[in-house]
Design a protein that fits this description.
The chain is of the alpha+beta class. The chain folds into two domains: 124 residues, no CATH class; 47 residues, no CATH class. A hairpin with a 6-residue loop joins β2 and β3.
Length: 192
């Protein structure tokens, strides 16, 4: 991944019937002061891929979006973060509840009917409605070339420059800000 930072990754389940998230990845800023994303993963081995996506994976992710698994998510992320010894673990834990930080990943066995782009489209047809929150960019490299996004400003933090924010607007009328540290390695000149 092009974005610098640290990843906290949960150990995979070793027992198929074990409860909890199949996988959990937490992406932290290089300073471990900010949480960029929490990736909730479901891994399924099945001969009924479409049915499993729609009847198991989709509803499970929807429960995450509705906050019904927040206590479980908080517990597992706290355990992962302790290994990285961040300065303010409470602040990071608070960021879990920012739904725009959550990402979802499905890994599932497929048959020939779901091979290729058209087959995968059929497999996940209707899935977009499960976790629909508008636009998002999982990496800096996916954000920067987006022609619908403009940089509209910068809010400096004169004590810790990478903690400042760049402000953006999207063609849909939405606005958002991203911590300057996300772009820090793009510039190697003097910093004022």
């Amino acid at each position: 991944m092009a974005v610098e930072g640290e990843w906290a990754i949960s150990a995979p389940h070793v027992q198929p019937a074990q409860k909890g998230f199949d996988g959990l990845l937490v992406q932290l800023s290089a300073s471990t002061e900010a949480m960029w994303s929490v990736v909730i993963s479901e891994d399924k081995a099945t001969s009924h891929s479409r049915n499993t996506v729609m009847s198991e994976v989709g509803p499970d992710f929807e429960r995450c979006e509705r906050g019904l698994r927040d206590a479980e998510l908080t517990n597992e992320v706290t355990t992962l973060l302790k290994a990285h010894q961040p300065n303010d673990i409470d602040s990071l834990i608070g960021q879990i509840n920012w739904k725009e930080r959550r990402r979802y990943r499905v890994s599932i066995t497929i048959t020939g009917e779901h091979d290729g782009n058209e087959g995968r489209s059929r497999l996940f047809e209707g899935y977009d409605g499960v976790v629909a929150r508008g636009f998002g960019w999982p990496t800096r490299d996916s954000l920067l070339p987006d022609g619908n996004v403009d940089v509209t400003g910068c809010q400096a933090d004169f004590i810790e420059l990478p903690a400042g924010h760049f402000q953006f607007s999207h063609s849909c009328g939405g606005t958002f800000a991203i911590e300057a540290s996300w772009f820090e390695n793009l510039y190697d000149g003097p910093i004022f």
